[in-house]
Write a structure and sequence with these properties.
With 560 residues, the protein is of the alpha/beta class. It has 2 domains: 381 residues, no CATH class; 128 residues, Rossmann fold (3-Layer(aba) Sandwich). The protein is built from 23 helices and 9 strands. It has a 5-stranded mixed beta sheet, sandwiched between helices. The chain is globular, with a radius of gyration of 26 Å. The termini are far apart.
Length: 560
């Protein structure tokens, strides 16, 4: 049984209201902008709003297509510029993406699987955290789901349209149609091995047992090629305006040129597989799926419960594999949000397996849902990106408090800090300060950078230090590999080798603790705060102008 056309607007509305209320209850909708939001996406959208330019000029262009930024700018134009407006606009995108996932799962399996899959995807920590952030990966994933739904429906025009929009949301969304195109071509080349009809789906009504269409049509090829055109036009336009095709040279070097190493590819491939099947409690889903596969299919009134037909499973696996491989090959930062088009497909396959083989499969879904919700708050015992759960809220609150203190007490000071705090202090419209603060910028708070900053301390009076990498207090892997039980030292050697690989291939560094950094800079900590492994500190280095709390007049510290 599938949902009717009359029920679908109601389903979308329910999804939107639930996501909006959850984010409102957790005080996420009015947070200032976080990390890449502040560094690129919000400035790019603001440039569209103020100048109409699709090429950002208040930040260095990285050639991301402008569809999401234009969407946000439209909301600002209609409603007003505010974080609440931005995040509400992104919740609409998240709801539309989940609705597309619901339609895809319903088409591939049934309504029960669709409801459970949509619930699990919505609660998956990475998806949930991204649902109100002004970034492009979730939107690209949602449009990919709609493209896959049209592909299963065998509607070439819709396939071309949805995948074209996905490509104009983020360039890596082109992976899905190209992977499907390669699959169609491979199915032509491979010998036909029997015929298994894809019951209940229009796509590939006659199919080979391996999931290939018996008679691929040229219209499908064309539909999967068309999405390349709008993306090519965008790059041509970008080149005509900037002289660069794939963004500024540093962006291209970091995300493509510097990643083309066999060793790095293998390391990144392992990380991508973990992000697809194990990360942020996905291992609970994967483990339950593997356990269920050991059981025979259940029967309802002597009729065996249906699985997702092999051709559709093949389509899902092709897209998942393509994302795992390509995103291991490119992308300087191995961020989990880049895998959002693939992970929900894993969720659909897993939920379908549970529904087919476990009598109490809804209990298993409840366990998975609770594990995902726990992942919102529980930080894993290894380094991860704060944007993958509610740790990003902790980051924003820390920076709000520290930068509010800094602006109130040192309004005229030059501040030593690193990105993205440098943007937070110089751009009041990001929501952290009320007026620009003068900044002296370093790359991070590694020993090398802090010691270098100590050599020119006459150029700043205050330092704003913060954790640029999440580091657990007791890292699980480090604790095991550096344990005293390692008599031959092989674990220690492996750990040091892994640390070296992280520095070489993934930009890893360790931030100095605030007390150590303050000592090197020759200053004293006047403000500090810590939340779940993240920290921020304000260090007074030289005599600075401060705002007296009694008479509200500017005085020079140390003056009579």
């Amino acid at each position: 049984m599938h949902s009717s056309s009359q029920q679908r607007p109601f389903i979308f509305a329910v999804i939107f209201v639930l996501i909006f209320l959850l984010h409102a209850a957790l005080s996420l909708l009015q947070l200032p902008y976080f990390w890449d939001e502040a560094g690129y996406y919000v400035p790019a959208a603001r440039d569209i709003l103020l100048t109409g330019s699709l090429i950002p000029h208040t930040t260095v262009s990285n050639a991301h297509p402008p569809l999401v930024m234009a969407w946000v700018a439209l909301w600002w134009k209609l409603v007003g510029y505010a974080p609440l407006v931005t995040r509400s606009a992104m919740v609409v995108v998240a709801a539309f993406s989940l609705f597309g996932l619901f339609r895809l799962a319903e088409r591939a399996a049934n309504t029960d699987v669709a409801i459970a899959s949509t619930l699990c995807a919505a609660l998956y920590p990475v998806f949930f955290a991204q649902s109100s952030l002004a970034q492009v990966d979730l939107a690209a994933a949602g449009l990919t789901f709609w493209g896959l739904f049209a592909y299963l429906e065998d509607r070439p025009l819709a396939v071309a349209a949805w995948f074209s929009l996905a490509g104009l949301t983020k360039e890596t969304a082109i992976i899905a149609p190209l992977a499907l195109l390669c699959w169609e071509v491979l199915c032509v080349i491979l010998p036909r091995v029997g015929v298994a009809r894809a019951a209940g789906t229009k796509v590939h009504a006659g199919t080979a047992a391996i999931g290939c269409p018996v008679e691929p049509r040229s219209t499908r090829f064309l539909a999967l090629l068309i999405p390349l055109l709008p993306l090519a036009f965008w790059y041509a336009y970008h080149y005509s305006r900037t002289g660069y095709v794939f963004g500024n040279p540093e962006f291209f070097r970091y995300n493509v040129a510097a990643t083309l190493s066999p060793l790095r590819f293998l390391l990144a491939l392992g990380l991508r597989l973990w992000q697809t099947f194990g990360y942020m409690h996905l291992w609970v889903l994967t483990l339950l799926m593997l356990m269920a596969m050991l059981l025979p299919p259940l029967k309802d009134e002597r009729i065996q419960r249906q699985r997702i037909v092999i051709p559709v499973q093949a389509v899902f696996v092709v897209v998942i594999a393509a994302y795992v491989i390509v995103m291991a090959l490119i992308g300087g930062a191995v961020l989990a949000r880049y895998m959002l088009p693939a992970v929900p497909l894993v969720i659909i396959l897993a939920v379908s397996t549970l529904q087919r083989r476990l009598r109490h499969w809804r209990v298993a879904i409840a366990v998975i849902a609770m594990a995902f919700v726990a992942g919102w708050y529980w930080n894993p015992p290894y380094g991860f990106s704060p944007e993958d759960n509610l740790a990003y809220r902790d980051y924003v609150i820390l920076h709000q408090n520290a930068e509010g203190f800094l602006e109130a007490r040192y309004p005229m000071a030059h501040v030593l800090t690193a990105w993205p705090a440098s943007d937070e202090l110089t751009r009041p419209w990001l929501g952290y300060v009320t007026r620009p603060v003068q900044v002296v910028r370093i790359e991070d708070f590694s020993p090398e950078q802090v010691m270098s900053a100590a050599d020119f301390r006459e150029h700043y009076e205050v330092a704003l230090l913060f954790s640029t990498k999440y580091e657990p207090e007791h890292p699980l892997l480090e604790r095991w590999m550096m344990s005293s039980g390692d008599k031959k030292g092989w674990r220690r050697e492996a750990f040091l080798r892994w640390q070296d690989w992280k520095r070489r291939f993934f930009g890893y560094h360790r931030d100095l603790p605030p007390k150590v950094a303050a000592q090197i800079l020759g200053g004293k900590i006047v403000f500090s705060e810590e939340r779940k492994g993240q920290w921020v500190a304000v260090v007074e280095v030289n005599k600075a102008e401060i705002l007296d709390a009694n008479d509200r007049t500017l005085v020079r510290e140390g003056s009579p």
